[in-house]
Write a structure and sequence with these properties.
The complex is a heterotrimer of chains A (245), B (150) and C (70).
Chain A lengths: L3 H6 L2 H31 L15 H28 L2 H33 L7 H22 L3 H15 L2 H11 L19 H33 L4 H7 L2
Helix pairs in contact in A: 2-8, 3-4, 3-6, 3-8, 4-5, 4-8, 5-6, 5-7
Chain B lengths: L2 H27 L1 H4 L5 H5 L8 E8 L5 E2 L5 E7 L4 E7 L11 E8 L5 E8 L8 H19 L1
Parallel strand pairs in B: 4-6
Antiparallel strand pairs in B: 1-3, 1-5, 2-3, 3-4, 5-6
Chain C lengths: L2 H6 L4 H57 L1
Classes of the chains: A mainly alpha (245), B alpha+beta (150), C mainly alpha (70).
Chain lengths: 245, 150, 70
């Protein structure tokens, strides 16, 4: 049946082998993109007509904010797949996505504060965008804490998974908060369907950094999944072979 | 799909949909409270309370800024292109404060309809360009305006 | 652009460089944490496998001796 690929894809052993082959490439490309993006963002792009040099914080703020939301979607979808089909690898993916997403949310919030102080004149304001992003951080931390609270890892997978699925409603709220309500935070520039209203040199820097951050986060998530595979499948003979004596 | 999986799938979907609806309704009900600031239209139409600390946001009206040469007191008008509200403030303004700029102020609405601000925050838009490009656009706009006037 | 201008960033150097410093720390931290986690897991598993092996050897020894006796 066509479900065969699904089962092959969900085999921890297959994942461990294929990820081992891909990871050096993903990591290498990510580092290349990082160096190109940093060069473009810090040296080779113009200052903004209103914000001056502070616009350079955007090249770190927007990619991390985007990753913080994307990895939550990955976390919730993985948790749902694991919950419904009882696929072990999906739960491992969910558990591995959480710390990466939490780190990106933290970065988005802290770079946002460092950008807000010179431009808005305040580190923090309780507007809808900033508050919903802070809730996202608590959702990630709640997932991690809830998962660790259970002695039985599989019960923890399911309990924390339900929290992850519930929290998905926060993602559209974060995204549309700047359109639905009055906020201090400005609207989105790139996700508009029109041409982005941004200097081409700035756009290049931003896109390079977005792909660099996404690839790096994917790599970290895959490294974490490999660790989960080893730890959870430790009774399998192939794991014994990999770990060695 | 096996019945057990179907039941789990239904459970997941009902949780997400149910909670989505609940959160959506709550946010809709709280709509005004989620807004960070009142617009000048809401101030003039009397929707904003007089007395408590509130936020007012809008664009600084061109030509309305009156600076006091002796101290840091400043008066300006904020607009949402529907109504204007006078704001007075004493203190240091953010770098981005200028005519036409979107700002958010925190303060108290007076009985006479003016706003006394204790904090001024600058809002910036989602357009990013180099000063040269901004200058060129400004020039082009001015030329277009002059042509229309002729 | 001189070095000094570059680090000064039009007076906003503090905010920009702090942002990038925090970013660097978090990215490197994520990578190092994963590496430490892997080392820890491998160490734990190796110890566990050694224990299992010695238990197995003892079991086979006792079964062998009991077989002899029987």
């Amino acid at each position: 049946m066509t479900w065969q690929w699904f089962h092959r894809l969900s085999s921890p052993k297959w994942f461990y082998q294929i990820s081992g082959r891909w990871l050096p490439w993903i990591m290498g490309i990510s580092l290349l993109l990082f160096s190109a993006g940093l060069y473009q963002g810090l040296f080779n792009s113009p200052i903004d007509y209103q914000q001056g040099h502070t616009v350079r914080i955007m090249y770190l703020h927007v990619p991390t904010a985007f990753a913080s939301m994307m990895f939550y979607v990955i976390l919730a979808v993985a948790a749902a797949v694991g919950y419904i089909w009882r696929i072990k690898l999906a739960h491992m993916a969910a558990v591995s996505a959480a710390p990466v997403g939490a780190a990106m949310t933290f970065l988005a919030l802290s770079t946002g504060a460092l950008w807000g102080k010179p431009i808005w004149n305040t580190w923090w304001v309780w507007d809808a965008r900033l508050t919903s992003e802070l809730i996202l951080l608590f959702l990630y931390l709640g997932f991690i804490a809830l998962h660790q609270a259970f002695e039985d890892r599989e019960v923890g997978d399911r309990a924390a998974g339900v929290l992850a699925m519930v929290g998905i409603v926060n993602i559209p709220i974060i995204h549309f908060s700047v359109e639905w309500w009055n906020t201090l935070h400005q609207g989105a520039t790139i996700s508009k369907f029109e041409k982005p209203s941004m200097d081409p040199a700035m756009l290049v820097a931003l896109l390079l950094m977005i792909f660099a951050v996404l690839l790096f986060c994917t790599a970290i998530m895959m490294y974490r999944m490999r660790n989960e595979v080893l730890s959870r499948e430790h009774n399998k003979s192939w794991v014994k072979e990999v770990v060695g004596q | 799909m096996k019945p057990l999986r179907k039941r789990r799938l239904t459970f997941v979907i009902s949780i997400v949909v149910g909670l989505g609806v609940a959160v959506g309704l709550t946010l809709y009900a709280l709509n005004q409270n989620v807004n960070l600031f009142y617009s000048p239209l809401e101030i003039v139409s009397g929707e904003a309370p007089k007395g408590p600390l509130i936020r007012l946001g809008g664009l600084v009206v061109t030509g309305s800024i009156q600076r006091n040469p002796d101290n840091l007191k400043v008066k300006f008008q904020l607009t949402d292109n529907a109504e204007n509200v006078w704001v007075s403030y004493e203190g240091i303004l953010p770098d981005l404060f200028r005519e036409g700029q979107g700002i958010v102020t925190m303060g108290v609405l007076q009985q006479d309809g003016t706003f006394v601000a204790s904090e001024v925050l600058a809002k910036h838009d989602e357009n990013y360009m180099s000063p040269e490009v901004a200058e060129a656009i400004k020039k082009a706009e001015a030329e277009a305006k002059a042509r229309v006037k002729k | 652009m001189t070095m000094q201008e570059f680090f000064h960033m039009g007076g906003h150097g503090f905010y920009i460089w702090t942002s990038y410093a925090v970013g660097t720390v978090v990215f490197i931290g994520l990578f190092l944490m994963v590496k430490f986690q892997r080392d820890k897991i491998i160490k734990q598993l190796r110890r566990r496998y050694r224990q299992q092996k010695s238990v197995n050897e003892q079991n086979s020894k006792t079964t062998a001796s009991s077989n002899k006796a029987g």
